[in-house]
Amino acid sequence: MYLLLSPAKNLNETDAVPLNLSDSYSQPALMEQACELMALLKPLEPTDLSALMGISDKLAQTNALRNQQWAWDTDKPFTTECDTPAKPAVYLFDGDVYTGLDAYHLDESQISYLNRHVGILSGLYGVLKPLDLMLPYRLEMGTKLANPKGKDLYQFWGYQITALVNQRIAESGSKVLINLASNEYFKSVNPKNIDADIITPRFEDGKDGQYKVVSFYAKKARGLMVRFAAENQLTTAQQLKNFNLEGYQFIENASSSTEYVFRRDNKWKQIKIF
After folding, report:
1. pTM of the full predicted structure?
2. CA 7, 201, 233, 175 torsion-angle sign
3. Quick one: pLDDT at residue 84?
């Protein structure tokens, strides 16, 4: 079983990695392509980045500096010990999904499970293993960054992400892909060419018998599901149906072979969703 996640805009550059995992760190597999993209980003001024990405002047300044500091070479790969230290992806990303995943409180065996069974899609790096070292960046998959291969990142990545995902699925020892990525990121994968059954979990919150997807809670639930898989060392999609963190339950009669629906009632937590 292989699980796919989206990255996060927010990054945790300050907290130290709580475990000694340095022997398991790796370089992202698609660094040649990442370097091509960064070569397009480095000349851009903050005003250019602001217009391209729709971000504030402050964020544009921050990311222009990140781009200038970003450096990688086969002779000088990412390392945790340099002027601009790299950090493992699962500890650097810091959005709603990663709040649910909470890697900082997983033990070594659980992190090892993640590294074998989880992929993180990325606009810059393509596909990351959780323990791939990376430098901070901002490049969402939907960004219309013109490049030699086309008008946006979907055209830039083409079949490369799908090919690497297929390789990682094979390495996981299963023919099942659990899609926990957003639509923006999963569009970089060609489902017709995936050598596995694809299952997409759906997380709904309910009140008075009505259920719907609430973005913030659904994002967190994706991370919770990955955490549940790691804590229980799951190997099959069938086992995912037992997911029950923070009140969610599998709903058989609302699910199908390609979509697993999980619901929880508002009574467990006072949230306004309707």
Report:
1. 0.95
2. negative
3. 85
